[in-house]
Amino acid sequence: MLSPYLESQYWRGGNFHAPKFYDDKIMTEDEKYWTILAMEKFGGSFVKALANALRCADMSNTVKIYNAWPDYLKEYGPGSEFYEAVKTIESE
To answer: Which of 4, 48, 52, 89 has the fewest CB atoms inside 10 Å of its own CB, making it the most exposed?
Structure first.
């Protein structure tokens, strides 16, 4: 059962609305995983700390991080050079 806060944030009209990130796109768990790896590999100490926070965050806190630092998600998230580079490195 969801807390009243989560219920109010994500359940509307009987439908679940997944958390969103920049440009109103939904980040999948797979994309979140690769974004965290990119942040850990290429980011400075603050970005690495955010990556660790994302790794530990529940859904509510993940949304807070996405909303607070959307520029970092653009820099390290899907479609970015860092994101593609870490996927290439890890798949070798």
So the answer is: 4
